[in-house]
Amino acid sequence: MYLIGLTGGIASGKSTVARRLVEHGAIHLDADQLARRVVEPGSACLDAIMREFGEGVVTHDGMLDRQKLGEIVFREEGARARLNAIVHPAVRELSGRLIAKAEQEDPNAVVVYDVPLLVEAQVDHPFDLIVVTSAPKRTQVERLVRERGLDPIQAEARVDAQVSDADRRAVADVVIDTGGSLAHTMSQADDLWVRIDRERRAKRA
């Protein structure tokens, strides 16, 4: 198996690169989706969140009320760290199981694990390659306004709240510049696949 850690700032083109790699034959795991799975009604993770933050963060039908929890996390000092201490280990355990399952089903699989918080959460799966998508802050803000309907001040705050691009680049084996055209991003993703395929063959040999 060949395992890629894909990370990058908000609206930096991670999904576009992941989709292109899937078109080439990769398996895509999305950490955000896994984070939603581990807090499903009845889960140990949701119970722990409720004990930590109160029953008010769960709706009447047993679902996590993300808006209520978000208000607490942004308002209270240290709340984000307490939430991460509950959610991150659960996501890590689930992602580890899914990666192992992919390898069991196909020992030659290429798995792209899309982890926005790879640096912040210190995700330490045995990656063969860490790929960082990178776009100028102005481009990220414009995308958030255009594609997600945020106002510019909200969008800038979202970008600023994340770890710096320099910190991500420090852990990168490959940086994909997504600040230009879609064709330019796709071309870099295609070049990346050629490298992955070459390294995968060398690993098998």
UniProtKB/TrEMBL annotation:
Protein name: Dephospho-CoA kinase
GO cellular component: cytoplasm
Reaction equations catalysed: 3'-dephospho-CoA + ATP = ADP + CoA + H(+)
Family: Belongs to the CoaE family.
Classification via NCBIfam families: dephospho-CoA kinase, PRK03333.1
Keyword Nucleotidyltransferase among record annotations: no
Subcellular localization(s) per the UniProt record: Cytoplasm
Keywords: ATP-binding, Coenzyme A biosynthesis, Cytoplasm, Kinase, Nucleotide-binding, Transferase
GO biological process: coenzyme A biosynthetic process
Binding-site list for ATP: 11-16
Pathway where this protein functions: Cofactor biosynthesis; coenzyme A biosynthesis; CoA from (R)-pantothenate: step 5/5
Biological function: Catalyzes the phosphorylation of the 3'-hydroxyl group of dephosphocoenzyme A to form coenzyme A.
Top EC category: transferase
GO MF term (any one): dephospho-CoA kinase activity
Primary site of residence: cytoplasm
Organism from which the protein derives: Agromyces flavus
EC number of the protein: 2.7.1.24
Highest taxon, organism lineage: Bacteria
